[in-house]
Amino acid sequence: MLFKYPSVTVSGLITAPAEVLFAIVSDVSRHPELAGSGEVEQVEWVTPAPHGVGAGFAARQNVGGMRYRTRSYVQVYDPPHQFVWLSGIGARRPPFGQLWGFDFKVIDARTTWTSNMMRVPIPLLRVPPFTWMADTGAMHEVTNMKPTLPRLAKMAGAQLLGDLRITLDWCAGDAPCSRVDPASFQTT
């Protein structure tokens, strides 16, 4: 398949149970404190509780002095394993928006392999110069995303162990993609 979706995943090992981490990321009102970019100013649910797949929330963003609002819809709500939302122009399903999310893999009762993922909304031709543009954009997102997991660990009263792992990927479909195998990580 020549057209694919560029994706970025930032992963690391956090000394907190998956349930605690999931509770933080699925409370969208905490995203301004969580988001490593500092661009998220305010988030609120626009659909009544309980929140799950299809629930919507609105965010006020400030990117380089440009303020705007986004509308997001939950795509995956699988406590305590995965929370993924589609953000953008108001579409409720991919591909018309940017996918963001978190994936939690339990290592043991007190340690979780945590991944923060972003997938762009537009499939690109997987040939130069499009691959160069995708990689350049992805590295910009990596810079914005790297502070998120340390913030999440702090919010959970936990620690981030070791270095972050950065994965640049190309997704074939309209869902999140990841090739990280948490079984390859051991706790000490």
Please state the average pLDDT score: 84
CATH superfamily: START domain
Order of helices and strands: EHHEEEEEEEHHE
| CATH third-tier fold name | Alpha-D-Glucose-1,6-Bisphosphate, Chain A, domain 4
What CATH architecture label applies?
Answer: 2-Layer Sandwich
Count every helix, treating DSSP H or I runs of 4 or more residues as helices: 4
Gyration radius over CA: 16 Å
Shape assignment: globular
- Main beta-sheet annotation: 9 strands, antiparallel
Could you state the oligomeric state of the chains shown?
A: single chain
CATH class: Alpha Beta
Q: How many β strands by DSSP?
A: 9
Unreliable stretches covering 5 or more consecutive residues: 179-188
In angstroms, what separates the terminal alpha carbons?
A: 41 Å
Q: Assign the structural class, choosing from mainly alpha, mainly beta, alpha/beta, alpha+beta, or little secondary structure.
A: alpha+beta
Please indicate the count of domains.
1
Helix fraction by DSSP (H/I, runs of at least 4): 10-25%
Measured by DSSP, the beta-strand proportion falls in 35-45%
